[in-house]
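Action item from last week, closing it out:
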Amino acid sequence: MLSGIILVLGSDYARAQEVSEYVAEKPETPAEGKALGWDPILKMSSNIAFSHNRKVVGNPDGANWNLGFLLNSGLCFLNEGGHSWENALKWQLNYTRTSVIDRLIKSLDALEFTSTYFYHIPSIKWLGPFASLVLNTSVFPGYDVRPEDTVVRRLDIAGKEVSIETIAAEDDIELTKAFAPTVFKQSVGVFADAVNKKPIKVNIRAGASAWEVFGQNGYIVADDAATPELDLRVIQDSAMFGSGLILTASGEIKTNLIYNSKAEFMYPFMHNAETDLSGIDILNIEFDFLLGVKLAEWASLDYTVKAYRLPFISEDWQVHNGLLLSLTANII
């Protein structure tokens, strides 16, 4: 027997434009919205999912819960002289409880703040300089939880053992502190609105970029399957300077189908990280994609995926993806 229920609730405070990359509404920039002056947005959503298994082949008996929260907010400015300033704060938080581990466990905690200035050249409005700041982090401490007693080895950046301990089943294996790791990005360069049509809008940004990583003595899982212990490697602080490229594409295929995608590349010509990597292996890569289906004026079904590789933090690809059914109420 298998039963379940999914409920997603949201509220929306907005004027003129949407800056979210998580919800299925037509993406716009301040220049496209042509709303001069300040333009704020605040959108909050929550979701709860429940399922229960009993004698289902291949699945353990018991209840499973998933609780989530999503915040999208922004404050943008546009004037007649071609100056625009876009600010966005996004936070996604999820907790999961399964029949295997009978407690709520944080499964996703992603906070992102972006602030970008654009100057649209009056004679060539699709081209101009830009400057941006981006901060990515997690709000709460990070941890791992295992259903059995686990021997944990903590390693330094060179792989040398620092400590070893046994963590009881379902106890926290501490990984990172609050607001760690934090990645701080600064970029300056030139942007171009290469395509600006309803089915597809393409923006390209290229220039110089500096990134800083603050690990705060946190750890990532760097386990060797050949050993019985769980290996954790320290996250090193690092700074890098190089060239960056950002490509975004978004559009509305039909009145009820939208997409939003982003690809970012940063190659550091200079860095202070302790690593044996070189060449293409030190390239930072991030991909984001959203596909949204608008089911009604108050409901949408969105699929999101984020894949990234930041080699000075982890050489492995990190991937988040999810399917979200959103019910919204426009308050303003």
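Closing note: Residues 2-327 form one domain.
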